[in-house]
C-alpha cells in the first residue's frame, strides 16, 4: 500500500501545469512517474518511513498542498502496486483516498469488470466477455491455458497474474509524457477536403509548437477522424525520422488523410496525436544539400520566438489566417 | 405580348429533385394564365398520367417530355474511360456522380413522339448505374431537343469556349437537325455558371451565330416561390451530403413564373446579349412556337382510354378469334365439371359470354386462364380472388375454384354491359414462388408485352425526418430517435401530430430545438423518393407495349418495369393482372410437403372434407392464431361471438370484419339474430330471398345489387352501377330520388321504400364483395383444417413462411400451448426450413414435434443453410467445421443457441474451439483440435451460459424464445405483484380490476365506430393471449409506454362480451423490463417507489397551442402538395382543415386512427431483452 496514483483535477487545458504538480510530488519521493495529461504515480516506500506517516496520511498532505500551492484539487488511490493504485483511484473521490491493502486485493478485484484492469482494452474485454469471463474473479478462476488460448500466450499469463492481484509494475521516474494530442471539431457535418486540410494544418502546427516547447521529437503520428454517427477511423504512421518540425508533421498528416480517400463521409472532428516522444537532443536528422529544409527550420525557430513573445497567433500559416 | 409556355419543368417524380407535385404545377400554370405546360421529369415520364389528368381539369394543354443524361458521341455508355479512378473511401462512400450532361427531350409528333420518348427513356435505363443515354441511341424523329445550361454545349459556353461549343454542336445538329433548340435560363445567379445572366446571354448570342432557334425556359423545380430550401434538401438527399451554404444553395428563382415575369427575364437576357429590347418578344415567340409544335394528345397518343390485350394466338386461340376460342373452352369446362345436364349453368354461361363479347374482353379471359394454367403446371398453388370469382366462365376456365352458382355469386359485380372499366381478376400464388410466376409470364408472352408495375415510394413523416435531418447535419442518433417516435403518418401532419398525440408530448416539448426541420419535413410530404416494383401487378399487352410505356429494369431481379404506377396503367388502358404472393399459400404448401415427407400421407388441400367438426371446433375456440384472415384480435373476438359452424358462416364472418360493416353497425344485429336473441326482419317479403342467408342483415355487395334490382326492377348490371354510386355523397342524393320513384312504380309502399333505402344508404359502398369473401374463406378453412389435424406441420409451414400479423415467437408460444413439442435447433437434425419429427408413438397415436429451422438463425445465408443441411450428419465439431464451412460468426451463433450441443462441451467452450478452428484455418497451422474421447469436444473450463443467457441468445439469434417462454423466468415477481395470467383471466368477472403482464405481440390503432382513437394491443404471457384496449382518457399516461416498450405490466378492467370474448381496458401501464431490473437491483421497495410515481405523464402537458395557429397558413402553403398518400380509411377530407375524418356512412374517424403506430412493431428478438454485460455475443 505504498504506491499512490494521483489525478489532479486540472481544468481542460494543456498538460503545462503538470510538471509543477509533479514537482510537488517529488518533494515526498523521488520516484514519481507522470501520467499525462493530468495524473501521476508516486512510490512512497521510502517516504513513509522518512515522514513517519502512512501513505494514506501522506495522500491527505499532498492534497492539501496541491490545493494550497496551486489551487488544484486531486483524487488519490493507493495500493501495493501501480496497477492497484490506479484501480483504486477509480473508487476515490476528492477528500476520500481509496486504499487497497495487500490482503483485500482479491476481494477488491473479484467483482470488477475485466475492462477495469489497466492494460485490458476494448478488444480484449470484448473477447473475454464473449466467453463469459466478464469479471476479474471469473478470469482468475479460468484455467491459464484457456486464457492463453483466448488472448495469446503472454497476454494470457499477464492477464491471469493481474486478475489474481499480482502487480509486477514499477513506478519509473522521469518516464516522459509519451504522446501529445489535439483535436479540431467542426460545427457541422464537414465534407469539404479543403477545410479538412486546414484543420490538419492547424493541428499539426500546434503539435509541432508544443513538441518544440517541450524539447521533444516524435516518432509517429496518429490521425483520428470522427464522424457524425460517432464512429471514428484511426490511422497511424511512423515518421521517416523523429521530428518536431511542423512542416514534416503536416506532410505526414496530409498523407494519412489522403489515404482515407474520404468523399461523402460526414466528418465531425479531426484529431492528431504525436507519439513516441524522445528528447530532442537524441534525435537524428538527415542533412541535405537542399537549403530549403534548413531555411524552413530556421524560419520556424524565429516564428516560435515571435510566438513566445507576442502570443500563439502572432505567426501562422497564411491559409489559417482567414 | 405573346404568352409563355414553360418547356422545362420537373415535378416530384424527378426523384429527389423536383419539389412540387404535377397536379400543383398544372394548377399554378392555369392560375398564372398559361395555356400550356410541359412536364419534363428526369429520366422518367411517371408523372405524365397524373399531369395529363390535372391539366385536363385545370384547362391547360399538357406537353410531355423528359430530361435525360446523354453520353458524349464516341464515348461508350460507361463513361469511365476518361476519368481517373479515385481511391475508395474508407468511410461514407463515394460522391454521387452527376457530371453527365443533361438534355431535355420534348415529344412533338403525337404518338410517334411519345413512342420515341418511351424508347429513349427505356434505352437510358439499360445503362449500369445511373440512367444514361448512349449517343448511339440518341436519335428520334418525333422529338424536340432543348440544349440547356446543363448540356455539353451549355457547359462549353459557361466555360467561355464558344469554339468548343460550336464543335460539340455539330453531332447534335447532324442527328436532330431542325428539332434542335438552345435553351436560355436566367435564375439571377452570379458568374457564368448555369442560371447566370452571362451564360444566358452567351447562349442567345451563340444561337444567333449558329442559326439555331433559342427558347427561354426557367428550368422549373417547384411551383411556387420560396421553395428554394426544399430544393436544397432534395439536392442533399439525392447527393447524400448535408446542405452546405458555402457550396451554393438553390437560387430560389426556379419556380413557375408567369408570362410577365418571364418577359422580364427575356428582356434582361437580350439586353445582356446586346440585342434590342424587342428581341425579347421574339425570344418568347420562338418559345411559344416550339411549344405549339409539340402536339401529343393524352387520349389518342398516350393510349389513355383504349385497351390492348395480348394477341389471340399467344393465348391458345390458334387461328380462331378469341371469342370463339373462349366459348369452346367454356363449353369444355362445362363437360369437365359435369354441369352439362343443368340448364341454369348453360344459360348463365351464354349470358356471360355475351357480356364478354359485348366488351371484346375474350382475349383477357384467355390470357388469365393461360397464366393460371402455366402456374398450375409449375406445381404452384394458385387461387383466384376478388370479384372475378363471381363469373361462371372464370370457374369453367379453371381460374376460380368456387362454383359461383352454388354460392350465389353474381357476374354483374364483376362485369356487366353497363360497366365500362376494365375487369379485374386477381390471382393468389405462393408468396415464396411469386417471382417464378413472373418469370413464367414473361417467358410466355415475351418482354415486349410484359412489364411489372412501378410503385413510387413517397415521403412519409419518418423518411422525411431522416432526410431533412441528414441534410441539416443533425446528429444521426438524434434523427433516429425523433423519426422513430412518430407513427407512420403523412409528413404534412408532422406538427399537428406533435401537438395532438399524447405519445409525442415529450418530443413536442423540444420542438423548437430543431428549428427549420418541421417546416421542411412537411414540405416533402408525398414527394416520391424512390421507385420500387409493385408487389403484385403485371402488365400484359400486345407487342406495342414499349411504344406506350418506358420500361426500366427492377433493381433486384432485373424484371422489366413500366414507369407508371397501378392507377396510371389503368388510365393508360394497359391490362394489369394482379399476381399476389400469399404467404399462407406458401405456408400451407410447406405443411403439406412436410406431412408427406414425414408420414408419406398425401393431403389434397383442395379436397379436404367440408364441414369438419374438429376444424369448426378449433375456430369456435378462438385459438385461431395463424389461420388465414381470422387471427387478428378483432377477428378472434368476432369469431368467438359468431361461433361459425359452416363454410357460409366463415364467408359471413370474413365479410363482417371490414371497416364498412363495423362502421355501419352490422355486426351486432347479425350476432343477435344469429343466436336467436332478436327476430329476423326483412324490409319486405320480396327481399327475403337475397337476405335469408344473413338473417336479414345486409353483408354483401351482391345483396345490395339484388335489393336494388328487385325493388326497382332494373337489371343487375344497372344495380351494380347504382351500388358504386352510393359511395359518392352527391350521386347518393340522385340515386335516392331515382330509387324511390322506381320502387314506387313497382308497387312498394312508402314505408318499405324508406326502410330499404335506409339500409342501402347505411351500407354505402362498404359491404364486402361476396365473391372476395368466398375466395378468402377457402384458405381460411384449409388453414384451420391443417391446424386442427396436422398442428406440427402447420406451425412448420407458418414459421417457415412467416405469414400473418404476429411475430414468430408468438406462433411458437401458441404451438407450445397446443402441445406441439418444440425441438431445439441441432445442426445434425434441423433442415433449411422448419420440419416435423416424430417424438413419441404410443398405441397408434403419434406425437409430432416441430424442429426449428436453420434459416431462422440470424444472418445465415441460403447457401450456408443449404450446405449445413446437405452435409448432415456430422460426427464432431471438426467435421462440422470442415464440411459445412460456416462463417465464424454463424458458427458462434449456432453454438450459442445450442445447435452444436451434440458435440459435447459447453456452449462457451465450443465457441473457443470454433475461434481456434477459424484461426487455424486462416493461419494454415493444420487442424489440431484438443479432443477428448475421440469425437467429443474437450471442455476448456469456461463458465457455461446461464439459463437467462441461453434464453437471451435464443431471442437474439432466432428471434424466438425456443426453449421456454420468456415470461416463465419472471413468475416469482409476477406472483408477488399478483398478476393474473391469461389462462386465469378467462374466469375473471366482468368489471373486475386486474393486473396483466406479458410480451407485446401486436399493437394497432384501427378506425372504430365511435370515431375515437383506441390503442389495441395484445400481450402474450405464455399461458395465452390478453387483448388490451386503451381509450382516449388513458392515452396521456399510457400511449408512449405501450408503443415503445416490449414487456408490459398493465392495470385494467375486464370487459366481457361473450363466453369466449373478453378484453382488458387498460388504465395504467408500466414497462415490465424496467420493473424487473428495479426488482433485481433495489428489491420490492424500489418497485413500490416506481409504482408510486405518477405514470408517464410528466413534462409540459399544457403549452404550445397558441403559436401554432400563426404557423397554420404558412404551413399549409409550404406543405404545398396535393399528392395523396392514400388517406387512412379512404374517403378522407383534408384533415388539416377538419381534424376528424368523416366517413360517408356518417361516422367520424379519429384523424390518427388506422396508422401504423410508432415503435417497431411487436416484440421480436433482439431488442426485447434486457441483456446483461456478460451475455453471450
* Total domains of chain A: 3
Spatial order of strands in the largest sheet of chain A: 2-3-1-4-5
Number of strand elements of chain A:
9
Strand content of chain B: 5-15%
Mean pLDDT across all residues of chain A, rounded? 86
The CATH topology annotation of the largest domain in chain A reads as Dna Ligase, domain 1
- Proper CATH architecture of the largest domain in chain A: 2-Layer Sandwich
The N- to C-terminal Cα distance of chain A equals 55 Å
Q: If you consult CATH, what is the topology of the domain at 22-79 and 96-293 in chain B?
A: TIM Barrel
- Main β-sheet description of chain B: 6 strands, mixed
How far is it from the N-terminal to the C-terminal residue of chain B, by CA? Answer: 76 Å
Main sheet: strands, sense, barrel of chain A: 5 strands, mixed
Helix content of chain A: 40-55%
Unreliable stretches of chain A (pLDDT < 50, length at least 5) are none
- Structure classification of chain B: alpha/beta
**How are helices and strands ordered from N to C of chain A?**
EHEEHHEHEHHHHHEHEEHEHH
Radius of gyration of chain B: 33 Å
What's the mean pLDDT score of chain B? Answer: 83
Query: Uncertain runs of chain B with pLDDT below 50, 5 residues or more?
Result: 77-82, 923-927, 1096-1147, 1160-1177
Family (chain A): Belongs to the DNA polymerase type-Y family.
Keywords (chain A): DNA damage, Transferase
InterPro entries (chain A): DNA/RNA_pol_sf, DNA_pol_Y-fam_lit_finger_sf, DNA_pol_Y-fam_little_finger, IMS_HHH_1, Rev_trsase/Diguanyl_cyclase, SulA_CellDiv_inhibitor, UmuC
GO molecular function (chain A): damaged DNA binding; DNA-directed DNA polymerase activity
Amino acid at each position: 500500500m505504498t504506491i499512490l496514483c494521483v489525478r489532479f483535477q486540472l481544468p481542460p487545458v494543456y498538460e503545462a501545469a503538470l510538471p509543477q504538480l509533479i514537482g510537488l510530488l517529488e518533494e515526498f519521493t523521488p520516484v514519481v512517474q507522470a501520467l499525462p495529461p493530468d495524473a501521476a504515480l508516486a512510490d512512497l516506500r521510502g517516504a513513509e518511513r522518512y515522514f513517519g506517516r502512512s501513505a494514506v496520511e501522506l495522500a491527505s498532505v499532498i492534497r492539501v498542498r496541491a490545493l494550497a500551492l496551486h489551487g488544484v484539487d486531486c483524487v488519490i488511490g493507493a495500493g501495493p502496486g501501480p496497477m492497484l493504485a490506479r484501480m483504486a483511484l477509480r473508487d476515490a473521490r476528492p477528500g476520500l483516498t481509496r486504499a487497497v491493502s495487500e490482503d483485500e486485493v482479491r476481494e477488491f478485484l473479484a467483482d470488477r469488470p475485466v475492462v477495469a484492469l489497466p492494460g485490458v482494452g476494448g478488444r480484449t474485454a470484448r473477447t473475454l466477455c464473449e466467453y463469459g469471463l466478464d469479471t476479474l474473479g471469473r478470469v482468475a478462476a479460468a484455467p491459464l491455458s484457456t486464457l492463453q488460448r483466448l488472448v495469446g500466450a503472454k497476454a494470457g499469463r499477464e492477464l491471469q497474474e493481474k486478475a489474481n492481484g499480482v502487480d509486477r509494475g514499477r513506478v519509473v521516474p522521469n518516464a516522459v509524457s509519451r504522446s501529445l494530442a489535439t483535436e479540431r471539431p467542426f460545427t457541422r457535418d464537414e465534407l469539404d477536403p479543403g477545410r479538412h486540410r486546414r484543420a490538419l494544418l492547424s493541428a499539426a502546427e500546434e503539435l509541432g509548437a508544443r513538441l518544440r516547447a517541450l524539447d521533444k521529437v516524435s516518432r509517429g503520428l496518429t490521425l483520428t477522424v470522427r464522424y457524425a454517427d460517432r464512429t471514428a477511423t484511426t490511422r497511424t504512421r511512423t515518421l521517416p525520422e523523429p521530428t518536431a518540425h511542423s512542416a514534416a508533421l503536416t506532410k505526414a498528416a496530409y498523407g494519412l488523410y489522403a489515404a482515407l480517400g474520404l468523399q461523402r463521409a460526414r466528418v465531425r472532428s479531426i484529431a492528431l496525436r504525436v507519439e513516441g516522444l524522445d528528447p530532442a537532443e537524441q534525435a537524428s536528422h538527415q542533412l541535405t544539400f537542399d537549403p530549403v529544409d534548413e531555411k524552413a527550420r530556421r524560419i520556424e525557430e524565429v516564428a516560435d520566438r515571435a510566438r513566445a513573445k507576442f502570443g500563439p497567433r502572432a505567426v501562422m500559416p497564411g491559409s489559417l489566417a482567414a | 405580348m405573346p404568352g409563355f409556355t414553360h418547356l422545362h419543368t420537373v415535378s416530384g417524380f424527378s426523384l429527389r429533385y423536383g419539389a412540387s407535385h404535377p397536379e400543383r404545377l398544372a394548377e399554378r400554370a392555369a392560375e398564372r394564365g398559361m395555356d400550356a405546360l410541359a412536364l419534363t421529369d428526369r429520366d422518367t415520364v411517371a408523372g405524365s398520367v397524373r399531369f395529363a389528368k390535372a391539366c385536363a381539369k385545370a384547362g391547360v394543354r399538357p406537353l410531355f417530355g423528359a430530361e435525360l443524361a446523354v453520353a458524349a458521341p464516341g464515348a461508350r455508355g460507361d463513361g469511365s474511360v476518361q476519368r481517373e479512378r479515385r481511391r475508395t473511401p474508407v468511410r461514407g462512400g463515394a460522391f454521387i456522380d452527376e457530371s453527365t450532361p443533361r438534355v431535355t427531350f420534348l415529344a412533338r409528333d403525337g404518338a410517334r413522339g411519345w413512342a420515341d420518348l418511351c424508347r429513349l427513356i427505356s434505352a437510358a435505363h439499360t445503362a449500369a448505374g445511373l440512367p444514361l443515354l448512349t449517343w448511339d441511341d440518341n436519335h428520334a424523329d418525333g422529338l424536340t431537343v432543348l440544349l440547356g445550361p446543363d448540356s455539353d454545349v451549355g457547359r462549353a459556353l459557361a466555360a467561355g469556349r464558344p469554339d468548343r461549343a460550336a464543335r460539340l454542336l455539330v453531332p447534335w445538329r447532324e442527328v436532330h437537325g431542325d428539332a434542335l433548340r438552345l435553351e436560355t435560363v436566367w435564375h439571377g445567379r452570379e458568374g457564368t455558371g448555369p442560371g447566370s445572366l452571362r451564360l444566358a446571354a452567351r447562349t442567345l448570342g451563340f444561337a444567333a451565330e449558329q442559326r439555331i432557334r433559342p427558347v427561354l425556359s426557367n428550368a422549373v423545380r417547384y411551383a411556387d416561390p420560396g421553395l428554394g430550401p426544399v430544393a436544397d434538401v432534395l439536392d442533399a438527399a439525392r447527393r447524400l451530403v448535408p446542405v452546405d451554404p458555402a457550396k451554393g444553395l438553390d437560387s430560389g428563382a426556379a419556380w413557375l413564373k408567369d408570362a410577365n415575369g418571364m418577359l422580364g427575364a427575356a428582356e434582361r437576357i437580350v439586353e445582356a446579349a446586346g440585342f434590342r429590347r424587342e428581341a425579347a418578344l421574339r425570344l418568347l415567340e420562338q418559345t411559344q412556337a416550339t411549344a405549339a409544335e409539340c402536339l401529343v394528345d393524352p387520349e389518342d397518343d398516350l393510349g389513355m382510354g383504349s385497351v390492348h390485350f395480348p394477341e389471340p394466338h399467344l393465348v391458345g386461340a390458334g387461328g380462331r378469334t378469341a371469342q370463339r376460342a373462349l366459348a369452346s373452352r367454356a363449353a369444355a369446362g362445362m363437360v369437365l365439371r359435369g354441369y352439362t345436364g343443368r340448364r341454369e349453368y348453360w344459360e348463365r354461361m351464354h349470358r356471360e359470354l355475351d357480356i364478354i363479347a359485348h366488351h371484346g374482353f375474350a382475349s383477357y379471359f384467355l390470357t388469365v386462364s393461360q397464366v393460371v394454367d402455366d402456374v398450375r403446371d409449375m406445381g404452384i398453388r394458385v387461387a383466384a380472388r376478388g370479384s372475378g370469382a363471381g363469373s361462371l366462365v372464370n370457374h369453367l376456365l379453371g381460374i376460380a375454384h368456387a362454383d359461383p352458382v352454388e354460392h350465389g355469386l353474381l357476374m354483374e359485380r364483376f362485369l356487366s354491359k353497363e360497366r365500362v372499366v376494365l375487369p379485374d381478376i386477381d390471382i393468389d400464388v405462393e408468396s415464396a414462388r411469386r417471382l417464378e410466376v413472373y418469370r413464367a409470364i414473361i417467358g410466355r408472352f415475351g418482354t415486349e408485352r410484359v412489364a411489372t408495375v412501378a410503385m413510387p415510394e413517397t415521403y412519409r413523416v419518418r423518411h422525411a425526418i431522416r432526410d431533412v435531418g441528414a441534410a441539416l447535419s443533425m446528429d444521426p442518433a438524434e434523427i433516429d430517435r425523433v423519426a422513430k417516435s412518430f407513427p407512420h403518418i403523412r409528413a404534412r401532419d408532422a406538427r399537428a401530430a406533435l401537438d395532438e398525440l399524447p405519445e409525442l408530448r415529450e418530443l413536442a416539448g423540444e420542438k423548437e430545438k430543431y428549428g427549420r426541420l418541421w417546416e421542411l419535413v412537411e414540405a416533402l410530404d408525398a414527394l416520391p423518393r424512390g421507385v420500387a416494383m409493385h408487389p403484385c401487378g403485371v402488365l400484359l399487352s400486345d407487342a406495342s407495349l414499349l411504344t406506350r410505356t418506358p420500361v426500366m429494369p427492377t433493381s433486384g431481379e432485373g424484371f422489366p418495369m413500366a414507369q407508371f404506377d397501378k392507377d396510371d396503367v389503368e388510365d393508360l388502358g394497359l391490362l394489369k393482372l394482379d399476381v399476389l404472393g400469399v404467404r399462407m399459400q406458401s405456408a400451407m404448401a410447406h405443411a403439406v410437403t412436410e406431412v408427406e415427407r414425414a408420414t408419406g400421407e398425401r393431403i389434397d388441400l383442395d379436397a379436404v372434407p367440408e364441414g369438419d367438426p374438429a376444424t369448426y371446433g378449433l375456430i369456435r375456440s378462438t385459438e385461431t392464431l395463424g389461420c388465414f384472415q381470422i387471427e387478428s384480435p378483432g377477428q378472434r373476438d368476432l369469431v368467438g361471438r359468431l361461433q361459425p359452424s359452416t363454410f357460409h358462416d366463415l364467408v359471413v364472418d370474413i365479410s363482417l370484419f371490414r371497416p364498412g360493416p363495423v362502421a355501419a353497425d352490422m355486426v351486432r344485429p347479425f350476432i343477435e339474430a344469429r343466436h336467436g336473441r332478436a327476430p329476423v326482419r326483412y324490409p319486405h317479403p320480396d327481399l327475403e330471398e337475397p337476405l335469408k342467408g344473413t338473417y336479414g342483415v345486409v353483408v354483401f355487395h351482391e345483396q345490395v345489387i339484388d335489393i336494388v334490382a328487385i325493388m326497382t326492377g332494373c337489371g343487375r348490371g344497372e344495380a351494380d352501377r347504382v351500388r358504386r354510386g352510393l359511395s359518392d355523397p352527391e350521386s347518393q342524393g340522385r340515386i335516392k330520388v331515382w330509387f324511390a320513384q322506381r320502387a314506387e312504380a313497382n308497387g312498394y309502399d312508402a314505408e318499405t321504400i324508406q326502410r330499404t333505402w335506409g339500409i342501402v344508404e347505411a351500407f354505402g359502398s362498404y359491404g364486402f364483395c361476396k365473391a372476395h369473401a368466398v375466395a378468402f374463406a377457402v384458405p381460411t378453412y384449409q388453414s384451420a383444417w391443417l391446424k386442427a389435424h396436422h398442428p406440427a406441420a402447420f406451425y412448420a409451414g407458418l414459421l417457415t413462411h412467416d405469414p400473418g400479423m404476429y411475430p414468430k415467437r408468438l406462433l411458437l408460444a401458441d404451438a407450445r400451448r397446443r402441445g406441439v413439442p418444440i425441438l431445439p435447433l441441432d445442426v445434425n437434425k434441423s433442415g433449411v426450413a422448419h420440419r416435423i419429427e416424430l417424438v413419441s408413438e404410443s398405441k397408434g397415436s403419434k406425437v409430432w414435434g416441430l424442429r426449428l429451422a436453420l434459416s431462422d438463425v440470424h444472418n445465415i445465408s441460403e447457401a450456408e443453410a443449404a450446405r449445413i443441411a446437405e452435409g448432415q450428419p456430422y460426427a464432431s465439431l471438426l467435421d462440422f467445421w470442415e464440411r459445412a464451412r460456416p462463417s465464424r460468426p454463424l458458427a458462434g451463433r449456432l453454438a450459442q443457441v445450442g445447435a452444436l450441443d451434440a458435440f459435447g462441451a459447453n456452449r462457451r467452450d465450443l465457441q473457443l474451439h470454433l475461434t481456434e478452428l477459424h484461426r487455424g484455418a486462416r493461419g494454415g497451422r493444420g487442424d489440431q483440435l484438443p479432443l477428448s474421447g475421440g469425437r467429443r469436444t474437450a471442455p476448456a473450463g469456461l463458465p457455461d451460459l446461464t439459463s437467462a443467457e441461453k434464453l437471451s441468445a435464443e431471442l437474439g439469434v432466432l428471434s424466438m424464445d425456443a426453449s421456454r417462454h420468456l415470461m416463465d423466468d419472471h413468475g416469482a415477481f409476477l406472483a408477488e405483484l399478483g398478476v393474473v395470467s391469461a389462462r386465469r383471466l378467462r374466469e375473471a368477472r366482468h368489471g373486475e380490476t386486474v393486473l396483466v403482464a406479458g410480451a407485446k405481440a401486436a399493437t394497432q390503432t384501427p378506425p372504430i365506430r365511435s370515431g375515437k382513437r383506441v390503442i389495441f394491443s395484445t400481450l402474450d404471457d405464455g399461458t395465452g393471449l390478453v387483448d388490451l384496449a386503451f381509450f382516449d382518457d388513458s392515452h396521456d399516461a399510457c400511449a408512449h409506454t405501450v408503443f415503445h416498450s416490449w414487456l408490459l405490466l398493465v392495470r385494467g378492467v375486464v370487459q366481457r362480451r361473450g363466453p369466449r370474448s373478453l378484453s382488458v381496458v387498460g388504465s395504467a401501464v408500466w414497462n415490465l423490463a424496467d420493473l424487473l431490473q428495479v426488482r433485481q437491483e433495489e428489491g420490492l421497495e424500489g418497485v413500490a417507489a416506481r409504482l408510486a410515481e405518477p405514470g408517464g405523464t410528466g413534462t409540459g402537458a399544457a403549452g404550445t397551442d397558441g403559436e401554432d395557429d400563426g404557423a397554420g397558413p404558412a404551413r399549409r402553403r409550404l406543405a404545398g402538395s396535393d399528392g395523396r398518400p392514400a388517406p387512412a380509411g379512404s374517403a378522407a377530407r383534408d384533415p388539416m382543415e377538419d381534424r376528424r375524418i368523416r366517413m360517408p356512412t356518417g361516422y367520424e374517424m379519429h384523424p390518427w386512427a388506422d396508422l401504423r403506430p410508432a415503435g417497431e412493431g411487436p416484440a421480436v428478438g433482439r431488442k426485447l431483452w434486457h441483456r446483461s454485460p456478460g451475455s453471450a455475443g
